[in-house]
Amino acid sequence: MQKKKNIKSAVRISLLDVMYGVVLAYGFSFFDKIGKVDHHILLLIFAYLIIVVDWIYVHNKYCDGAYKSIYLLILDILILFIISRLFAISMKDNNSCYWLCMGILFVLHIIWDFCAKNKRLLRGYNPYCYIGGDLFAALFFLIFYFLFLKTTLQPNLFLNAMMILVYIIACLTWLKEFPKEFKDRLIQIKKFLLEN
């Protein structure tokens, strides 16, 4: 019985790898559309960075064949859809929607984190770190997207570089523990809020 279950999980994981490969190949079609080297190439390469980092992170969680929920599969498909949109949007001159897609991507990551936590895929990781990092990134990207809609501020090279920096910080929270002092301070704040 266990062998049959492992084969089913391996098939699902292989399907996930194929889906990542398809989206990655889809991104290659946009290299021909780059007219000059500018922010388009930066955003396109950034989309490649996102899919590679996401595949490494997700594949690491599923490497034991522990695909335990249909919800995780649906979330993985939605995440890959958003990443495919990042490839397409990177070619547009007004790429404020790129920021919206980044915000949605991190909202999906938050939901994925909660589902994976409930299915015990994230043993050994601190949920304050990975959920906190994803929440920080989602808020950052969505706030800037709404600023682009409501003001004359538009994405530029500096803001796009800042977007990449925030993404890197959020990814590092997937791998690290909070410093003990910071974690203790969060616990103190939580206790204070609960008491009042």
Quick structural overview:
With 196 residues, the protein is mainly alpha-helical. Helices cover 78% and strands 0% of the residues.
Judging from the principal axes of the Cα atoms, what is the shape? globular
**N-to-C series of helices and strands:** HHHHHHH
Task: Describe the largest sheet.
Answer: none
The unreliable regions are none
What is the SS-derived class? mainly alpha
- The residue fraction in helices comes out at over 70%
The number of helical segments is 7
What does the radius of gyration come to? Answer: 19 Å
* Amino- and carboxy-terminal Cα gap: 53 Å
Instruction: Kindly estimate the percentage of residues that lie in beta strands according to DSSP.
Output: under 5%
Give the overall average pLDDT: 77
Can you tell me the number of structural domains? 1
Number of separate strands: 0
